[in-house]
Each structure stands twice: as structure tokens, then as C-alpha cells.
Amino acid sequence: MKQKLEEIKVQAKAALEAADSTQAVDEIRVKFLGKKGELTAILKQMGSLSPEERPVMGQLANEVRGEIEEAIAVSLKEMKAKAQTARLEKEAVDISISGKRKENGSLHPINSALEDLIDIFRSMGFDVVDGPEVETEYYNFEALNVPADHPARDMQDTFYLTDSMLLRTQTSATQIRTMESRKPPIRMIAPGRVYRSDDVDATHSPVFHQVEGLVVDKGITMCDLKGTLEQMAREIYGKDTKVKFRPSFFPFTEPSVEVDVSCSECGGKGCRVCKGSGWIEILGAGMVHPRVLAGCGIDPEVYSGFAFGIGLDRLTTTRHKISDIRLLFENDMRFLKQF
Ligand code: DAH
User: Fold this and answer.
1) pLDDT digits (tens, 9 = 90+) for 70-85
2) Which CATH class is domain 109-336?
3) Domain ranges (residues) in the chain
4) Considering the entire predicted model, what is its pTM?
5) Residue ranges around ligand 1 (CB below 6 Å)
6) N or C: which end of the chain has fewer CB within 10 A?
7) Which residue puts its alpha carbon closest to atom 5 of ligand 1?
């Protein structure tokens, strides 16, 4: 029995030496020390020993158990240390590797111009509303007093989706939606994309951007229109900017004007940016036509209003002296990074 105990001790230690995982160590514990293990099997035979031998063997068996337990503990400790070292090695950060540069994004020049406009108009009490790009003929033309034979209604100028649905050609459609859903006083701007069936060149794109504006209240006059738009133009182009109102025509305003600002590049002398005229046209505007007000359920005898439509792309190109509108839409990083 004594020899058997020695053998168990030697075998267990050898097995532990060879074990390469905590699971293997656990299996060894069960094999030698478990309830059905080899050491337990020996102890069960104690009954057959003489009373003198029993305590001697008992003590020896306990010693063997103690030694195996200790060897197991040592083995587990070593394994834990090894696993930790391996993990640390795997997770090690090589601080000598050069980093991955994160490119900083920036606002597109159209968006930064729009943000400036929003700030300017918000400070004057306007709110910002949104309208759909897919519009009905009614909102885009009819309610805006655009007659059926107006050239803008032609297929050559407008992208029709069905007989009565189209891609809006002007953000003015949002004026109607706003007047239908709200009561005066109204002070809003409506920025967004608009579409026209134009060929692409340095000054035309089939999709471009407008910022519509609308003010409706009692006693609104042309003076309010002039003051508001002059203020906007000076904040965008600089406080010495001159603003010119030219008579014009739009079906939904009466009277109508087009607004030019003095060219910030040449100061009005005439240059490439203003095409020699000294002035840059930035928007159309006017007093809301009484028929348009009435069509939206607003009594033109009580209320009046003004409206304007800013060409955002043109405002952006002239502001940054960009000579070709296509640059705004091509998303060439070399161009965009300059802003
Ligand atoms: N919708 C016009 C256009 O696309 C611009 C415009 C002119 C808007 C006069 C207005 C306005 O609100 O009053 O050419």
C-alpha cells in the first residue's frame, strides 16, 4: 500500500508537469483526489490493515494528498501567471506605430451660407420651415398665380413626375403651405433644393438651392421688405454693401423687384465676378399678390405681406468668388477643403 501511495504521488506530479490547461489540472484533481479517485480507492482498503498499520498508512495518505494538493495549487498559479503574460503581450500597444489620421469634416460652403442666413433671419424673428421637394402642380404653380400658359409650366423647364406631380421648381410652394396651415402674423424662411430641366454649365444646374422668405401681418409695406433685405445683404456681404431694388415681375408678387448688391470683389467698378456690371443679382422679391393671399384664406383687405426667394448657390459663389457653380456639386475634396 505504501508503494501504491508513492506511485500515486509520482504519477500525479508527472501529470501536473505535463498539464497545459487549468481544465487538465482539474481533471488530474478528480482522477487522483476525487470521490472516485485513486487515493480514495486506496483509503477504502484501510479496513483490511492491522490496527498498528492503519495510523501509519493514514498519515502517509494524508501527506500524499497534501503534496498533490500543493502541486495542483502551484501548477494553477503558474498557469494563471502565464495566461496573464500572454494576454498582456497580445494587448500590448506599439507606441512607435504611426497613428491613423482622422480627417476633420467641415461645412459645405452652401451649408455655411445657409447657416449664416438662418442666424440672420432668426435674429429678426423668422422661423425656419420645411417643404416637400416632390410637389403638386397646385402648390408649385397654380396657388402662386402662375398662369397655365406660363413658360415655366412647360415640360422643357419642369421635371414632371405625373400629370400633376413635379419636382418643385421654386421654394415659393412652401409659402402657400405655410399660409394654409398658419394664421398671420407669419415670419418664416424655407430653405431647400429646387429642380429645373436645365443643362449643366458654369451658371446652371438642374438642382440648386433657394431660401424662400415670407412675412404676412397687418400693415406690412414695401419699406419692411427693403429694410429686411438690406439688413440681410449687409450682414452677408459686409456693411458697406450697396443694395439696389430693380422693378421686375413675378406672378405671385405685386409689385415685384429683383435685388442686386454691389460687387464685393471690385466694389462696383466691374470685374469678372460681377461680369463687368458692378452689381450681383441675389434674389427676387415683392409684395404678396392679393390673389395669393385670398387663395390661402387670408383677407387681403386686412393683411399684407412680402416674400423673397434667395438664390443660395449664387450667394455662395459670389461670396467666395467661385467662378463655376459646378464646383459646388462635384464634391472634389481639394475644393471643399478650402472652406
Ligand atoms: N420663386 C422665384 C424664382 O424661383 C423667386 C422669388 C421671387 C421668390 C419673388 C419670391 C418672390 O418669394 O417674392 O425665380
Assistant:
1) 988 889 898 899 889 9
2) alpha beta
3) 2-90, 109-336
4) 0.72
5) 170, 172, 212, 250, 253, 284-286, 307-309
6) C
7) 309
